[in-house]
Records
---
Amino acid sequence: MDYKKLRLSIRTAGLGKTSEHWRQEIKEEMSKANVMQGSLVESQNVKVALKTRVSELERSLHQYRSRNSVIELKASRSKIEELKGKIEELETVLQNCELRVRDRDYVMGATLTQVREVADHLQTLAVQALPQKTPKHNETHIHKGCSLKSGPNIRQVPRHRQASRQVQAPT
């Protein structure tokens, strides 16, 4: 009984084949192994080719980024130069404005001086227009740079300042 069971399990397991069957099966398996090995070599070749392609693409990407950086740098440089030009223009305008303000300050100062001189002269004239008491002997009444005997004495602007002024003191 044990013999029948053993034979049955050998048949079901496929161990009961003849040597010819075994040789045929080994050849088939060797053929499959060769095909698989060829497939493995082909896969390795494809893998190497893909790695090479990835390296090429990475280099291309780096070059593209570098080229874009160069283009962006050139654009930035031109923008910087443009802004420098605008800054120079604005500095020139600012200097012109500062000069105008200085000129206006000078003219206003000169005008203010003349207005004060005219006010002093008017005050002198007003004093002269008042009824006068007779002065003792040859005494002179002096009021803010004016003499009643000699008439108005307007403060004169020095010649070197008159030449630089556009407006002259009233006479």
---
Amino acid sequence: MDGAPDAPDTGSPPPQYKNEGTALALSVVLGLVGIGGAGHMYAGKAGKGAGLLVLSMPLYGMVLLILYVFIGIGFLVAVDEEVGPYLKTLVIFIGTCFMASYVWLFFWQVFDARKLCRMYNGQIRKTGMPPW
């Protein structure tokens, strides 16, 4: 015995580090199928992850709807010749906007989930307590 006092027993297990690879895998794999925010939920930010999920699923659905259904089944070819070129341009423009928005959201949520894991692990290293 060196005379040092024992650490207080809080009754709960010590906090576990979050694996950046797991956050990355969840974000990328599930993000590719329209389920964004899984890496945030893993990192302990369930509210932010749920918000990303609510945002990413309809956005991904719109991309699929516009790009695969309308263009894929020839919807744009079967319209009136007078209106056809304008409608085709409009649908392609809207589809491109949805696709660009989803791609931006996808990459942002991947990098942000990794950053959150680093912040979480850094806080545990410093204080021994999770930040959130």
---
Amino acid sequence: MKRLHTAFALSTAALACAAALATPAGAAGHAPVKPAKFCTYIVDTGQSGCFSSESQAAAAFGARTQAYKDLGRIWSDANSGGSQLTFRGSQGCGWRYPEFASLGNGWNDTVSSAQGLACPITLWEHSDFRGAHQTYHGYNAYVGDGMNDKASSVSFDLN
């Protein structure tokens, strides 16, 4: 049940971010809306959210979640462009979080750049950590043609 709940939370965060990105600028005489593009998902609590700036995301999750490590980050575009999703958890490296077995709506098959923060990040072609995979150390402005827009799950257990 926890896996279903956390997968739902990740999908909800992705949908909220995607909805914010799809909001038309300048609709009906309103000021243009800056899209939310900085998303965070904390696996241990199921907390997630998307914000229009990194400082808003840090303010929302930073102080309350010092026990959690920033494991890694993915972006929807190359060169850390587009939307960003940061994965946080208490287990750290060497652990395959079941909650990351499916990137869910909004992030599935959209990853173009990745960064392993606390440890290397592995992108998997299919959900449930199946199919072709590539492990990245540090920041990678482009995940390469073999994995670009193909990742469906993420792990932090391979070196």
